[in-house]
What does this fold into?
Amino acid sequence: MTDLYAALAAASSLIFSFDRDLVEIVLLSLRVSLTAVAAAAIIGLPLGGALALFPFRGRKAVMVAISALMGLPPVVVGLVVYLMLSRAGPFGALGLLFTPTAMIIAQCLLVIPIIAALTRQTVEDLWEELGEQLRSLGAGPWRALWTLLWEGRFSLFTAVLAGFGRASAEVGAVMIVGGNIDHVTRVMTTAIALETSKGDLALALGLGIILIILSTGINGGAFLLKEAAQKSQMS
Amino acid sequence: MKSVSSILPLILDKVTFEAGGKRLIKEVSCVLEAGPRSVIIGPNGAGKSLLLRLCHGLIEPTGGSVLWSGAGGKDPSLLQAMVFQRPVMLRRSVAANVDYALSLRGLPSDERRERVADVLARTGLRRFADRSARVLSVGEQQKLALARAWALRPQVLFLDEPTASLDPAATLAVEDVIAAIHATGTKIVMTTHDLGQARRVADDVLFLYRGRLFEHSPAGVFFETPRSAEAASFIEGKLFWRHKEIAS
Amino acid sequence: MRGVRVHRMALVFLFGLAATFVGGNPGAAEDRFIIVASTTSTDNSGLFGHILPVFESETGIEVRVVAVGTGQAVRLAERGDADVLLVHHKPSEEKFVADGYGVRRFDVMYNDFVVVGPRSDPAAVRGMDDVAAAMAKPAAAEAVFASRGDNSGTHKKELGLWKAAGVDVAAAGGNWYRETGSGMGATLNTAGGLGAYTLADRATWISFRNKGDLEILVEGDARLFNQYGVVLVSRERHPHVKAEDGQRFIDWLVSPVGQRSIARFEIGGQQLFHPNAKKEGS
It folds into this structure.
């Protein structure tokens, strides 16, 4: 219990002193995860929709692969991205390793399967419901895809939030490709891992509490926005 | 419509549809002319919805042909519309639902706005224009589905049991809208299993039973002197549907 | 229609937030930087936090430290993902240079390893002078020993000591010998939890905040000496290496200013690293 009190004390002193390093870390965490999720949504939503609507060879295989990738440990994704971005790897010349961009790429890869898989399911169900009517009205496959993505916006928004959850909570991938460099690639989760390894459990837990507050705040805010939007659809 | 020539008549030649090794539509041949309201009747499972979808082009026949003989070089699908048994509404406002259909036809926005206002006024839905379509009652939603189809100014409107989920008052309201659409020159092709409705609406009747077209005659002739024994017993209410052969 | 608007607001909010962050990039403000692959012991102790600001203000070169185990740090440098390697396992460093990955190795500083264990000391090693003999005792008593097991400098040092003690730890894995496969701090956390013995570098030990029941039991044997060396990654092998700035960092480390800066780093009045750069590299 004393550890927990110490953690709460550490968390509140960090928050109320508006610690500059902490602010920097929080901003970087948000920047990395939100950018990664936005990019993953731009890729994953159409990809999932296309999987639902367009029959093509190997579609089943892609679907199975995406489901499998949903559960991929972040550290594996981190390792793969590291090997790609390393100077000795195929994209080494870009010099992206140990930068926030590398972290965004890794988290984006982590989130795409979640968004794509949930989108596929949503769009498939919507096609079941609306497909005949859309075809009757003369919507081509691409137009139908965009229409169904918009029709499914509330569930898809939840899918994107789930993706944000995975991105903001993972440590394995950003640790490897970011390197946890102070003031450059240190984010909430890697800072927590670092403080734990320094044996400063109170500070680590304090940072953890701040992470929980942040992600709860973002998820809660997004949820309320969604509810409000949904409600105004229903009145 | 105005100057556009009609894509009708619609000629079905030995149209057959098979699924899962079963022949659900069996060599149906008929000609649907511009003008009269054609009503396809028959017990549940007769294949009425299937036949309608074959005419509208939502499914392809496995045998025979569906020909829009007046189409010339035109795309006949742009001049037809269909309303389903359960109204299918998009998750947006009443006006936006109509507007969506018009945008698929590539119409400019001022003409779309005009047509939306026009059909909503004609169907009595104007006061709901900014409401979400999905909160309307089923009867109002079906009227909206008709309005959406109407806005497209189709030459042919297919209606698949449009009142099957509705109460009597809503049924009459929907029938009024159908009559109004017909009055503007649109050919109506409608299925129903409700004989009373068929008597109210039909100009000519197609009697379908177990995937086969038994009769196609003017409504008066069909109801007074049906040619087939099956039709006669259906009219008397004696022909009960067997096991359900078709999902829809 | 209102619903649509609220929803658009939500979208704009999210993407706007994301876009804001894409735009501002605090890390990339200065583009003159070098990457130093180093060990958790140097970074976790806070040494870099102490000396780097001095170097950075003197030269304007930002030093970005990626702190991992010595083994992984060497691998990073071999792949060209760092400009400078600063670790503590001389044989690996010399091999790194001999294989053509590094230019030249310089001694920088030293500290020492200590054997820590539970206060109750079940294997009775407290105060022994001979570290090999001391390590043989928990092995014989099958008292739990927590090993880094991560191919780090500390791990390599530990394996050397087992050899000297004549103990085959490979056979004891999972039994009394537990490999954590993680950093020094994590291993100390584990040792504390298990009531185990472990080998730690003194810098990490002093700065470690979760000592709990653990304390130093054996220290001072010459074999516990822990030398840190620094190597510039070869530009011939990896043309993108920032050789000038990297060499400037190395020169500074071994210069009187750098050495004094290292000596001045203390925690709780204890000096953690002892500078011992020679004039010439080895």
